[in-house]
Structure formats: C-alpha cells, structure tokens
Amino acid sequence: MRTVIQGGRIVNEGKIFDGSIVVEDTKISKIVEGNTSPEVVADEVINASGCFILPGVIDDHVHFREPGLTEKADIDSESRAAAAGGVTSYFDMPNTVPQTTTLEALEEKFALAAQKSHVNYSFFFGATNDNVALFDQLDEHRIPGIKLFMGSSTGNMLVDRRESLERIFSSARLPIMAHCEDTDIINRNMTEAKRQYGDDPEVRHHPEIRSEEACYESTRLAVELAKKHQARLHIAHLTTAKELELISMHNVLRLRRR
Prior knowledge:
The chain contains seven helices and twelve strands. It has 258 residues and is α/β, with parallel strands linked by helices. Helix 3 (162-171) crosses helix 6 (212-229).
C-alpha cells in the first residue's frame, strides 16, 4: 500500500517547508520538498493543502487511570483520544491501583497496554521510601524514568524522608521526573487557611495553600540532590519563574550520570 500526502506544510527536524510525503505500508519512504508531486504510482493520495504535516507527538505525562481507576478513563479510551489528536506515543504515570511501584505491577501495565493501546506506550516506575533496590532491575530501553512525588498527590505516593531522597537520587540511572511541593509548608498553609476561612477553604485559596514557597523549596531540594548525585532531573508542573531561574542557575538539565 503506497500513500502520498501532498500539498501540506511539513514540520520536521527544525524546518518548515512545502512538500509531499510518500508512505510505503506503515513507513515513510520519501520526503519531497517543493510543490512537485512525487513521481510514484499511489494507491491513495491525500490532499493536505492548508494543513501542517507533523511527526507524531510524544506525550510524556499522561494519567490513563488503568488499572484500578477505570471509572475515570482507561488505556483504550485515552489512547484512542491520543491517536485522534496526533499523539502516537505516551508515558503513563504510576499512581494507579495498584501503584506502579513493583516489577509485577509494571509488567501488568505492559500486558494491559499490549492488548488495549492504539498507539505506542511506556510507563514511569514510581519511587517510594523503600523500593530503591528495584531500580537496577528496570530496563532503561523500555522505561522512560522514575516518577518521584516530593509532595502529596493523587495516590498518596509521597516521598519526603531525606534519607530516601538521597538513595533515590544516588541510585537512579534513569531520569527522575519529580512532582515538587513541600508538604510541611502546604500543611501549615492549610491550617492557617482553615483558621481564616473555615474547614473547607474555597478553591480560590489554592495558591495560598500550595504556595510559591512550597513549590520553590521542594524544587530547590530536587535541584540540590540532582547536582550532588549527578542525576538527570525533569520537574513536572513547574509553577513559578523563580523555580525556572533556579534550574537555569544550576544547569541541572544538563547533568548526566557519569
């Protein structure tokens, strides 16, 4: 099966240009720049005039909720939505039920995805206070990274013991994706918010509770540990310009384990 996609604006490898693409079965066999039609016999011609033609997007942070939380979503429904939006690969988070913090739970997710996913997939392995010994058994060609909740979030996967954090940053060969919020600061802010606004503060007080200070202090610690142990660090949900300046100052995104 040969398909020609022609007349579109191709976005590829840092360039944008008019051109056509020849697809043989499931693989791109030729990219032709300019408005000249490829000299091939095609089974199907797709007119992409007025459209951009882009490589498939990799979404490195999704919550597909399977297993255990499928009343919200599942691998089938969310991977179909991904494909419809041009996302051809995704990395799913570990706060499911059970949490993806054991090798058995990780393999269960891969088995589910093999049956149900409509696009390419992989899964973050979740760090806990006591599962660092499993890191060496993770295949770095199969797993995108270690997800570390340094602040409380869905699924109660909080890791906030300094000795545990030291072990994680010193042991992880894979990139660490950290959710950074200081839980002690959040708890203090919540206590004060309840004193001022009642037992159930309105959502408009969210930035007072999960404050800039709470984000910055946790990110500061993550950067400190990444620099100390030469770990690769990705900070999810970066909240403030102040945090961005902290990362830039330490060049933490350039660190590679020796």
